[in-house]
Amino acid sequence: MAESIGDELKSFYEFLKYPQQDIFKEKLSLGNFLPIISTYYIVFICGMIVLTPFASLAGLDSMPHKLEDLQDMNIWLLLLLAVFTQPFLEEVVFRLPLKYHRALIVLIFTMIGMIIFMLLGGLYPTVENDTIPPIRIIIPIAAILFASIALFLFFNKEDDLLRIRKFVNKYFPHLFYTVAVYFAFVHFFNFETTGNQWLFTPIMVFPQFLMSLFVGYTRLKYGFLSAVVIHMVNNLLPLMVLQFANPV
Q: 180: domain range?
């Protein structure tokens, strides 16, 4: 059990030095929730302090964000979508597989599919007239389906599963950081960029990268529920600020 914020910070730091898959120690509870969430915000705030001067240089303050489109949405619908549905689904996709060898490999294949998707239409393709060329949809989907079928059907023998397990165990630190980068990168599309502003992608998605690291850590240490709860709290607070800043 996390006895203090300092203990949790130290545990998180040690984990980042060499992420391990099998570190589950205990489930999330009321007793350890406060040190965990407090540690998360300490890490997050320190990251934001470091990021602020770079964000100013990149002009992030004036860059349109999809969050602004949510201001006119019904508050209850907004809570349902942004605080409950989206965090749960994102955790199912990005953090749940961290404990499952084949699911983690499939997730990596989805990243490969997304890279192919991006390269087919330019590094950061734009959508014209709300239509996307079919080829740019078919190829990444095909990559995902191929990976899923290969892993769950063709590689279903005991020897194949053992090889997958050995591969994941050997390269898990690399896979963990790859998933964190992947999660952060997909949030680039929350911004409306022009010209060469895409060059500042690492700065734009740095908060999501920090969150992914910590939530991935808690998912492995405290279970899947901890990742969902922290993600929900992370989404709830900015929405509350947004509502109070723009009361109906």
A: 5-245
Report the greatest alpha carbon distance in the chain.
61
Question: DSSP letter string over the chain?
Answer: ---SHHHHHHHHHHHHHS--S--------HHHHHHHHHHHHHHHHHHHHHHHHHHHHHTGGGS-BGGGGGTTS-HHHHIIIIIIIHHHHHHHHHTGGGG-HHHHHHHHHHHHHHHHHHHHT-SS---BTTB--THHHHHHHHHHHHHHHIIIIIT-SHHHHHHHHHHHHHHHHHHHHHHHHHHHHHGGGGB---TTGGGGHHHHTHHHHHHHHHHHHHHHHH-HHHHHHHHHHHHHHHHHHHHHHS--
Structure-block tokens of residue 62: 């004036």
List pLDDT tens digits, range 64-79: 556 655 666 777 787 8
pLDDT in tens, 148-203: 776 666 667 778 788 888 999 999 999 999 999 999 988 877 766 666 666 777 88
| Neighbour count for residue 180 (Cβ, 10 Å) | 23
Residue 122 has pLDDT above 80, yes or no: no
b/e map of 220-248 (b: 16 or more CB within 10 Å)? Answer: bbbbbebbbbbbbebbeeebeeeeeeeee
- Report how many domains make up the chain: 1
